[in-house]
Amino acid sequence: MPSNTPGPSGPAAVLCGLAGWVPPRVVTNEELAERLDTDDTWIRTRTGIRRRHIAEPGQATSDLAVEAGRRALRSAGTETADTVIVATTTPDRPCPATAPLVATRLGLAGAAAFDVGAVCTGFVYGLATAAGLIAAGVAERVLLIGADTYSTIVDPLDRANAIIFGDGAGAVVLRAGDPDEPGAVGHFDLGSDGAHEDLITVAAGGSRRRASGGQPADVERHFAMRGKEVYRHAVTRMAASARTALSGAGWTTGDLDHFVPHQANLRILHSVAGDLGLSRDRCVTNVDARGNTGAASIPLALADAMGADRIRPGDRLLLTAFGGGLTWGSCFLTWPELTLNPQPERITP
Questions:
Q1: What pLDDT band is residue 10 in, cutting at 50, 70 and 90?
Q2: Catalytic residue among 29, 53, 120, 187
Q3: Would you call 161 a catalytic residue per the annotation?
Q4: What single DSSP character describes residue 282?
Q5: Cβ atoms within 10 A of the Cβ of 94, count?
Q6: Is beta strand 167-177 parallel, antiparallel or unpaired with respect to 12-21?
Q7: Where do the segments described as ACP-binding lie (predicted)?
Q8: Annotated catalytic residue: which of 4, 29, 286, 292?
Q9: Count of domains forming the chain
Q10: Between the CA atoms of 308, 310, 313 and 319, what dihedral angle is there, to the nearest 10 degrees?
């Protein structure tokens, strides 16, 4: 899909609030090693992950989304939004969408509210959706939340996936503004390839499996990923999408201050950065302490980096993601003046 930016006649979506939230419970590599055939060194060598946060029993995706959404609204200095978008792979229920419940719990009953399902690319797709609503004059202020509880769909005894994923939520508030002001999000590149839908999947739970009759096997109820093939596609698709967005913006990699990719695993992040000719110090990462949090990963990485004073006003950022579907997407923004309220949890070394 060609890159694009708001036209001169339409307002831009401008970032004005940001927050992240993770459940208090921390699961270390050592704890995973107690039930899986693995150890801390094996996990860190292959993924770069040291620990991840996991939701408590009974804690749903909407609970995480509400926590992040409330903090993002405070960051923006507002209590209102006329649209709420929740990007997630783990909705509270297959039906209805999770966003209306989140909106109501945030005191935003009556606002337009819907979910976006693009797996780990969901946040970037959500940004593009919010930007389109604002440019069309349908919305003035959008609350976009990426939230996932992968612990509810990953088999806890699946060594390949249980070590990778964590639970969390990240949220931004976007308002109508000028395309040239700091915080304006644009130059989107979005894409998909359904020929590879089976690379990242939960086989049961949808109409395809129900239509085939019979009860699904336990393995079909859990998240499955063909890691080696996903690695290859993730690196190729994210790098290509980033280049397309760069070209559309008229930027080069030398113009970037920070590259903020979906936090899949450290090997993928470093491979994409290397493919683009970016030094690792310009790649924003928090995967070591958060794990892969799906649609929440980019806003959580932004919140953590801002809390550590790594991202500052005027910095130029490239956001890039890849997820099941297959889906991928990229966009740009210049970082605005923001307030984190309250400060996000600091990541310990």
A1: confident
A2: 120
A3: no
A4: G
A5: 9
A6: antiparallel
A7: 263-267
A8: 292
A9: 1
A10: -110
CA distance 14 to 260: 18
12-21/141-149 β-pairing: unpaired
pTM of the model: 0.94
Task: Respond yes or no: is residue 292 known to be catalytic.
Answer: yes
Domain span including residue 114:
1-349
Is residue 256 left, alpha or beta, with left meaning phi > 0 and alpha meaning psi from -120 to 50? beta
Q: Single out the residue of 75, 104, 16, 92 nearest to residue 333, CA to CA.
A: 16
CB neighbours of 93 closer than 8 A, spacing ≥ 6?
none
Task: Judge whether 291 and 164 are in contact, CB under 8 Å.
Answer: yes
Q: How many CA atoms lie within 13 A of 331 on its CB side?
A: 27
Question: Cα dihedral sign for 132, 336, 121, 340?
Answer: negative
Cβ(86)–Cβ(95) below 8 Å: no
The reply to whether 120 belongs to the active site is: yes
Name the active-site residue from 262, 265, 283, 286: 262
Q: How far apart are CA 38 and CA 43, in angstroms?
A: 7
**Vertex 91 angle, CA 89 and 92, to 5°:** 155
How far apart, in whole angstroms, are the C-alpha atoms of residue 109 and residue 33? 44
pLDDT digits (tens, 9 = 90+) for 86-124: 999 999 999 999 999 999 999 999 999 999 999 999 999
pLDDT in tens, 127-171: 999 999 999 999 999 999 999 999 999 999 999 999 999 999 999
CATH number assigned to the domain comprising residue 176: 3.40.47.10
* CB neighbours of residue 193 within 10 Å: 13
